[in-house]
Amino acid sequence: MKTYHIFLLFLILSCKNTSEKKDSINTPDKILMEEKNQENTNIYNSEQALWEYQFDKEISDFKIKKVREFNSDTLTSKKIEKIINHNWPKVQIKYTRKNKDTVFIDIPDSNVLTQQMGTTGAEQFLISTTFSFTELEGINYVSYNFEIGDHASPGVYGRNNWNEK
How many helices (H) and strands (E) does the chain have? Predict the structure, then answer.
């Protein structure tokens, strides 16, 4: 009789595990969605973004867009640094100083920015970061210091670098 109960219990547990496996089967659509979500989380997280460089279907081109309302008076260089580092977890910046109308930013590990994000991804990063820092009163330029790569170059950027687009 004990053997029968043990066998019955084993059978019930086996059936339960089978149904759980059926629920976790990944379809191609589900796999693509999960990969896309994971990629976005790893490269870019928009929840705190101030500015974005977004594709506009109406004009079939990218344009700069303010995506969140904020009080410019409460922004500081360190707050913007935290926002950028939260939004771009694979491209961490370090605010180093301010001189007149320019803030200076270091990107110690720029490989993702310059080699892995593509030209458009790197441009999205530079634009959103530049526009965010130039929200600070009296700041017109951002000087980026990082190792040059295929998709991005260090230098001094201002909003006027992209106003033509």
Answer: 5, 6
Whole-angstrom Cα Rg for the chain: 24
Chain position carrying tokens 């605010």: 95
The predicted structure's pLDDT at residue 35? 42
Given its phi and psi angles, is residue 149 left (phi above 0), alpha (psi -120 to 50 degrees) or beta? beta
CA–CA distance, 96 with 142 (Å, rounded to integer): 11
108 token code pair: 């110690």
Q: Which of 25-39, 75-89, 99-113 has the lowest mean pLDDT?
A: 25-39
Is the separation of the CB atoms in 142 and 158 below 8 Å? yes
pTM over 0.90: no
| Separation between Cα atoms, residue 118 and residue 150, nearest integer Å | 8
Cβ neighbours of residue 12 closer than 8 Å, sequence gap 6 or more? none
